[in-house]
Amino acid sequence: MLLHLEKVLNAEQLAEVRAGLATAPWSDGRMTAGHQSAQVKNNEQVPEESPAGQRLGRLVLQALHQHAEFNAAVIPARIFPPLFNRYGVGMGFGDHIDNAVRPYEGGRVRTDVSATLFLSDPADYDGGEL
Q1: Among residues 103, 16, 81, 83, which one has the least CA distance to residue 43?
Q2: 85-86 and 44-45: which strand pairing?
Q3: What is the rounded end-to-end Cα distance, in angstroms, of the chain?
């Protein structure tokens, strides 16, 4: 099932995330891909452990916790911090299945829902279809 939610971030939050990403460090996106996904993943990603990734992740998580429609649809027990990805010319993420089990706090957690939060206006780029 696909659910399209609008206004997850308000204008101020969106501006803060975009400004933070403009100066954030970027690395090869395959660093968080499983074996199969790494074969089709060609993008850049803010390292999860970076101060920018952690700060921006907390901002997005706070917005999700306050979004009534998201919470009603997902009923999350736990939300993983988001991964921030970007795609340059010629980059993409081919057909894949998201990892259902992820390492978390020394153990493993099953993840049942995946979400994509677009931070750019669709009129500003080509691609991005899910």
Answers
A1: 83
A2: antiparallel
A3: 12
